[in-house]
Amino acid sequence: MVNHARLRRDFAALGVEPGQVVLLHSSLSSIGRVEGGEHTVVAALRESLGPDGTLTVPTGTSANSDTSPAYRAAVAGMTAEEAEAFRSRMPAYDPGSTPSVRMGRIPECVRTSPDARRSAHPQTSFAAVGPQAARITGDHARDCLLGERSPLARLYEAGALVLLLGVGYDKCTAFHLAEYRYRPDPPRRGYRAVVDDGEGRAWCEFEDVQVDDSDFARLGADFERAGDVRCGPVGAARGRLFPLVAAVDYAAAWFAANRAPRP
After folding, report:
1. Which of 26, 119, 178, 212 has CB atoms 3.0–4.6 Å from 165's, for a disulfide?
2. What SS3 class is residue 131?
3. Residue 70: inside a domain
4. CA–CA separation, 17 and 13 (whole Å)
5. How far apart are CA 189 and CA 182, in angstroms?
6. Greater model confidence, 198 or 41
7. Is 114 within the bounds of a domain?
8. Residue 205: count of CB within 10 angstroms of its CB
9. According to its UniProt record, which reaction does this protein catalyse (predicted)?
10. Three-class SS of residue 205?
11. What is the pLDDT of residues 114-167, one digit of tens each?
12. Domain count, the chain
């Protein structure tokens, strides 16, 4: 059984310190049997960061869009009428109450904390707790999933660290910020999501960078070999801690070298 004291020791050994700003991606089950579950993990990490530290987690709602893989999977095999009925029942995004989708139990624990702040994007929101939470999550533009007007850019400015806890680089959303930066004209596409701006449920449409995480595992392996990653156990999980700025800058150069230019 992994308890609070062991988590505190493991976080400290990995390099988590008071006052840091941390973007966490996590798998609770990878840590092992945790006494108190996700609440113990969040409490131990917040105590490790101290009152001056800020913890941020992704709280995305991919099922809130009809242009997402989650939607396509949900309506696969439906008739056109069934798919339209399903679409008509999709609830509008509410930052205060809409659960995240496939983010895990630890992010949900952070999102539902009494002092949590959450960004307003209907697909790629983030939640944060701590003194920088409002600045990190505020002003998340609807037509900017993960770019310069998103929490990722605010985390970059804050000199945040990324903590991968029992997950791989394929879950490292920080790399997405580099997709907006590695070339002046990254590929773009259209998106739709259901929202409520105070006048009832409605669909919004916008164009943004075409984000793609299919090569993140390979990118992450190269980044780790570059030597700016601290690795160590957290319970039974493998933890990785590294500067978000270094990860984004490395990824921008890596994309420029390894992604084929658009025809």
Report:
1. 26
2. coil
3. yes
4. 10
5. 17
6. 41
7. yes
8. 11
9. a 2-deoxystreptamine antibiotic + acetyl-CoA = an N(3)-acetyl-2-deoxystreptamine antibiotic + CoA + H(+)
10. strand
11. 999 999 999 999 999 999 999 999 999 999 999 999 999 999 999 999 999 999
12. 1
Q: Does a structural domain hold residue 154? A: yes
For 102, counting Cβ atoms within 10 Å of its Cβ (0-12 exposed, 13-18 middle, 19+ buried), the class is: exposed
Q: How confident is the model at residue 78 (pLDDT cuts 50, 70, 90)?
A: very high
Residue 62 token pair = 């991919």
Assign 13 to helix, strand or coil.
helix
Determine the structural domain holding residue 173 and report its residue range.
4-258
Q: Which amino acid is at 18?
A: P
Q: d(Cα 15, Cα 79) in Å, to the nearest integer?
A: 52
Q: CA–CA separation, 41 vs 35, rounded Å?
A: 9
Residue 262 has pLDDT above 60, yes or no: no
Token readout for 169 is 């680089």
Instruction: Give the 3-state secondary structure of 129-156.
Output: ECCCHHHHHCCCCCCCCCCCCCHHHHHH
Q: How far apart are CA 216 and CA 146, in angstroms?
A: 15
Retrieve residue 117's tokens.
């702040």
Secondary structure of the chain: what % helix, strand, coil (to 5)? Answer: 40, 20, 40
* 239 alpha carbon, distance to own chain's centre: 16
Percent of the chain with pLDDT over 70: 99
**HSE toward the beta carbon, residue 162, CA cutoff 13 A:** 27
Q: Residue 188: name the closest of 209, 214, 216 by CA.
A: 209
Measured distance CA(169)–CA(224) in Å, rounded: 10
In sign, the C-alpha dihedral spanning 199, 205, 209, 211 is positive
